[in-house]
Design brief:
Order of helices and strands of chain A: HHHHHHHHH
Radius of gyration of chain B: 18 Å
Radius of gyration of chain A: 21 Å
Oligomer: heterodimer
Helix content of chain A: over 70%
Number of helices of chain B: 8
Shape of chain B: globular
Largest sheet of chain B: 6 strands, mixed
Number of strands of chain A: 0
Order of helices and strands of chain B: EEEHEEHEHHHEHEHEEH
Strand content of chain B: 25-35%
């Protein structure tokens, strides 16, 4: 084996990764620019709002309520080891709002919305519907990409807010029904402990994760290969990339908010 | 009206078009024949700008197809795609009236729907099809809806990409007749790509044989059988023996 093959391979991998990053960045900037330039497609935007926002509520709600409940149990059990069971309301609130709410909603959106966008657009590409759009004088990025990205940017923070509230409600239900917490005291502790910056960080993370989820779905859909295999690869790639980027963005944003 | 001059297009090492020249006079119906993978669809997509040629020139009405207002350029074209390429999320009438519901040709929704139903009737579909979704239609009906969409805005130039592929002979005959009637009635310039010889005879004024990335023969459809060109003769006869390799 050639001694240079390892660094050569590593270099090629880095170049490939950088090229992919560049392509996604150019695609994202072009997509975002189309949000502000006419023509606009309000019907497509309304459908995207419904699909990304309203129809994601059940999965977001169920994820949040179970996570909030489990979190309350874990904090209670962990806190009991050093007589700190009383911190359940505060830790559930901060855990849900700062971290688990945005991340879990982001990952659920990646699973549900990114995959759906990628599969839909990739299928349109494979069946020449994208070419048909162009021949009908309709820019695919304006008609398909811009409405979805704008809808995700608006609805995912709202979903995160809903997820935060439902998660806290899950913790509240478990704490008051199973762990003997006083309902009024639990709510008072939750409200008093949360700060505005916690909520702002949650919503900012939601917007960033929504943007990532929609862009990755659109990018993989638009650049998919041919046939069923192309659609499958686009869908898989979009979810993988969106999930990893959401977790990476969460780390970066958490660092930024800590430093403020 | 449409002129391709020395058009080249390669995908990696696959040199699909290797200096294609073609002239389509205004108001005529040109059919391009050739085996699968010879670049017929690529040529068509190069004219529309869906694929950028590596070199060569394409003119429409004497003007460079790459220059000028892209929307205005595309507004002159209608296209029937091989698989119809109907938008799954829209009902049939909105597919047909797509161009009439947005952009410079935008009309009120009721009027656009009326035109869509009129065009559906023109291609032999009843008005009750209008509110169905493409997935609820047979392949032949989808092709007719695609044809209705292609002619909805009454374009000057219509492209047909394999219009009869996947259809039974009777439905293929119906589509061929419709295309011929519509092209004659509208006075449109038409370009069809196919390897179905019955389509060629039904639709074409002129025929061009594409092989090896260049036009091997072109002439009026009436002279096709006596062209003397070995490529055309082999293609018409469907023989495995001849200059076109059976295994590609």
């Amino acid at each position: 084996m050639n001694l240079l093959s390892l660094p050569g391979g590593l270099g090629r991998a880095i170049l490939t990764m950088m090229a992919a990053f560049g392509r996604v960045t150019i695609f994202a900037l072009a997509s975002i620019s189309h949000i502000f330039r006419p023509p606009f497609y309000p019907r497509e935007f309304a459908i995207a709002l419904l699909n990304i926002g309203w129809l994601s509520l059940p999965v977001v709600g169920l994820t949040a309520i179970f996570t909030g409940g489990a979190l309350a149990l874990q904090i209670y059990a962990g806190g009991a080891r050093f007589n700190a069971e009383a911190v359940v309301p505060q830790i559930v609130a901060i855990g849900m709002v700062r971290e688990l709410g945005p991340v879990l909603v982001g990952l659920m959106i990646a699973a549900r919305v990114t995959s759906s966008i990628a599969a839909e657009i990739a299928t349109m590409k494979v069946t020449e519907q994208i070419d048909a759009l162009i021949t009908l004088s309709t820019h695919p990025m304006k008609y398909l990409t811009a409405p979805r990205i704008l809808a995700a940017l608006i609805t995912v923070p709202a979903l995160v807010a809903v997820g935060d509230v439902i998660g806290i409600a899950g913790g509240y239900t478990v704490a008051t029904q199973n762990l003997g917490f006083n309902p009024a005291t639990y709510l008072k502790n939750t409200v008093e402990f949360l700060e505005t910056r916690d909520i702002v960080s949650s919503l900012v993370k939601g917007a960033a994760f929504g943007l990532i989820a929609a862009i990755m779905g659109c990018y993989y859909g638009m650049t998919s290969g041919r046939g069923a295999q192309g659609v499958g690869r686009a869908t898989k790639g979009s979810v993988e990339s969106a999930a990893v980027l959401i977790l990476a963005a969460n780390f970066v944003l958490t660092g930024v908010f800590f430093s403020l | 009206m449409i002129r391709m001059e020395n058009v080249h297009k390669a995908f990696g090492n696959n040199h699909v078009l290797q200096g294609m020249d073609l002239d389509i006079p205004k108001g005529t119906s040109m059919v391009i024949i050739g085996g699968s993978g010879t670049g017929k669809s690529v040529a068509l997509k190069c004219i529309l700008g869906l694929i950028q040629p590596d070199s060569g020139m394409i003119y429409v009405d004497g003007k460079d197809a790459k220059k000028g207002d892209r929307d205005a350029f595309l507004a002159r074209f209608g296209m029937l795609f091989q698989g119809a390429a109907l938008f799954d999320s829209l009902p049939v009438w909105q597919n047909v009236a797509f161009r009439l519901m947005r952009g410079p040709l935008k009309r009120p929704a009721d009027y656009a729907r009326e035109i869509a139903i009129d065009k559906l009737r023109r291609v032999g579909l009843k008005s009750d099809v209008a509110d169905r979704f493409p997935s609820e239609l047979s392949g032949g009906m989808q092709k007719r809806v695609g044809l209705a969409r292609a002619i909805a805005a009454e374009p000057e130039i219509i492209f047909f990409d394999e219009p009869t592929t996947g259809l039974d002979p009777i439905m293929a005959g119906v589509i061929n007749d419709l295309i011929r009637e519509i092209v004659t009635e509208m006075g449109a310039t038409a370009m069809t790509i196919t390897h179905d010889m019955s389509s060629v005879r039904a639709i074409a004024d002129n025929v061009a044989m594409l092989h090896g990335g260049v036009i091997q023969w072109t002439g009026p459809v009436g002279k096709m059988d006596a062209s003397g060109d070995p490529y055309v003769e082999q293609f018409i006869s469907g023989s495995a023996e001849g200059p076109i390799e059976a295994v590609r």
